[in-house]
Amino acid sequence: MSRTDFDTLLQAGCHFGHLRRKWNPAMAPYIFMERNGIHIIDLHKTVAKIDEAAEALKQIAKSGKKVLFVATKKQAKSIVADKAAAVNMPYVNERWPGGMLTNFPTIRKAVKKMATIDKLIADGTFNNLSKRELLQVTRQRAKLEKNLGSIVDLTRLPSALFVVDVMKENIAVKEAKRLGIPVFGIVDTNSNPDDIDFVIPANDDAKDSIDVILTACCAAIAEGLEERKAEKADEKAASEQSEEVPDAQPRRAHRARKEAAAQEPAAEEEKPAEE
Q: Is the Cβ–Cβ distance between 193 and 26 less than 8 Å?
């Protein structure tokens, strides 16, 4: 069953591409036609690609891995923040910190610095600082929170990247490709889909278009998380059951031995004496 239907994508304006003069020829397989100098995206292919991407995202979430969402353009920032946070996934919606993936340990140090500042403020270590020094520390903390606050829980490299506008986020895509991290992306007619593992051909400028695609993909992630939760509950129940079984087996064996021993003398009594 399709996660997103043709009409929903049509109403959201997912089919509007860029002007013909701005197109990237590599997007030709996903273009349906040209109207008034604007390319129209083939939504039948978009539906199929959303389903394909959603299934892959579901499996990643089911295996307990993280998907990092990236969208720094203003139309997508708030949508990505809401959708990613709802499924407990990390996201970057401010400036992409160069080397975030290729120099991940340094980024983790900056994230830990936030926690250190919080701890020192809480235990009163900063009480002896002057107002100016305290203001500098507070500003540093606020800057770190703005740029890295949404990836606090990302303790290791993500298993996948989901990018809105692969042309704008080309540095993030390059870093992911260098490390062999699969990339999911909403790709418009002016972008190059060659470096994207899961291409979702659609309008990456309209809020409604971004929203409808992210809703479908995040719903798949939520499904994966639920299935993981259910599997863990089943495993726990099975392990508890298996722990009870070994205790019952010795009791049953002991009872069987006692019954056999009780029957042996009776059998000897019934045996006729030999003359």
A: yes
